[in-house]
Amino acid sequence: MRLKNLIATICCLYISFSATAQSALPKILDLEERAQVEEEILEERIQTLLPSLMERSGIDLWLLISREYNEDPVLKTLLPPTWLSARRTTMLVMYYPEGADSVNPDRVECLAVARYDVGSLFKKAWNPEEEPDQWERLAEIIAERDPKQIGVNTSEHFAQADGLAHTDYLHLIAALSTAQAKKVVSAEKLAIGWLETRTEREEMLYEHIARIAHHIIAEGFSEKVVHPGVTTTEEVVWWYRNRINELGLDAWFHPTVDVQRADPSNTEQKRNFSKRPDKQVIMPGDLLHVDFGITYLDMNTDTQENAYVLKPGETEAPPYLREAHQTALRLMDILTDNFRVGRTGNEILLASIEEAKAEGIKPTIYTHPIGYYGHGSGPTIGLWDQQGGVPVKGDYPMYANTAYSIELNAAVFISEWDKEVRMMVEEDAFFDGENVRYLDGRQKELFLIPRQRVNEVVEY
């Protein structure tokens, strides 16, 4: 009997240790460590990624100008990690002439028309004692290089590619010669390419960031946070915000937590997404959903996952909810199977909706690029209120080495509840040009509250 008790104790300890190990929070770097990684990534991106993007866009001189606290969204991604904003008027010049040596690792010339270097990459190219006028010095640098096209960040439809302030644009045109001013063009495609394209190292880091996000979501959707009959959805929302802050991370949007349940008075499945969900006390039998995103190492996550609150005597979610969740996963597969280099967001959207409906699925698809910004630049694949296609942003083509939040929902009629459930899911994924890979997998089964311990040995 003593041996049996010892074996049972060892088994319990092993199970407890395994569960703890599997749910351990991934390492989060301190600020100094983050700065080192961010600096290395920026240098790698400029040296290995920027040349091909400039060639693809046909722009041989890219100019970014921002005043302090009015930063161009693209310029913010080029500042060193120890710069939390531009300083005075910051001008960055990137020059990649036709026929540049593709073997030379320093093939993009990076200059800062400023009083000091901007990080280790952009070298000071203005001496106010020799030329007091900063704009005149910029004009001299451009004239010396005589580029074919001068790209500036202006865009009617892509906000993150429209960072050149009107006043700075007027100063620029006034400083340039007539011949050089005629070469000024929109750098929209170059700016979008820079924002949406990820390097191999960034893909690897993104997997780690997505794992951190998954860990926090799972922690919040557990008995550690949720006490059925007591805890409200709004309390869980603020638990997530506080937890993100405790870990030294940032939230790029305020999370939402909502409830769908059998109660006919619960109409969450009909809520317009422009409205936040109502505060609810979480009860046994509820289907919980969270929309959650963090910022870490200059990259963002956007994740939606679901949990079921067990009723007394239940050990798993009802089969009809598990099946509804699998329907949403199938819709994700249909969508990502349509990813192709060169296809537009609208083409992917319409093909996916047609295939889903042919399988009897009621789809709503609203997938978006992600990276430096949560709602990033690139091909928009539907909006929740625009399922027939999205003008302009939906017409942008898909490129390789880009990341997306695979965001959508499948509406499934639950006869046991006598109403539809809107199964909302979202996971971050990477497209390498041929295949789509979820950065840290995706939720295959609903979380259970409280968690059920598999194979736990209990002796009375």
In short:
The protein is of the alpha+beta class and 460 residues long. Helices cover 34% and strands 19% of the residues.
Written account of the structure:
A hairpin with a 4-residue loop joins strand 16 and strand 17. Helix content is 34%, strand content 19%. Helix 2 (31-57) packs across helix 7 (188-196). The chain is built from eleven helices and 18 strands. By secondary structure, it is an alpha+beta fold. The protein starts with a helix and ends in an 11-residue tail after the last strand. It folds into two domains: 31-195, Creatinase/prolidase N-terminal domain (Creatine Amidinohydrolase, Chain A, domain 1), CATH 3.40.350.10; 200-449, Alpha-Beta Complex (Creatine Amidinohydrolase), CATH 3.90.230. It has a six-stranded mixed β-sheet with strand order 4-3-2-1-5-6.
Descriptors for this entry?
disordered C terminus, Creatine Amidinohydrolase, Chain A, domain 1, alpha+beta, disordered N terminus, 11 helices, six-stranded mixed sheet, five-stranded antiparallel sheet, Creatine Amidinohydrolase
Query: Can you identify the CATH class of the largest domain?
Result: Alpha Beta
Spatial order of the strands forming the largest sheet: 4-3-2-1-5-6
Number of domains: 2
Number of DSSP-assigned strands: 18
The CATH homologous superfamily name of the largest domain equals Creatinase/methionine aminopeptidase superfamily
How does the major sheet shape up? 6 strands, mixed
> Which CATH architecture of the largest domain?
Alpha-Beta Complex
The averaged pLDDT comes out at 92
First-residue to last-residue Cα separation: 13 Å
Shape: elongated
Q: What proportion strand?
A: 15-25%
Q: Could you list the spans in which at least 5 consecutive residues all have pLDDT below 50?
A: 1-22, 455-460
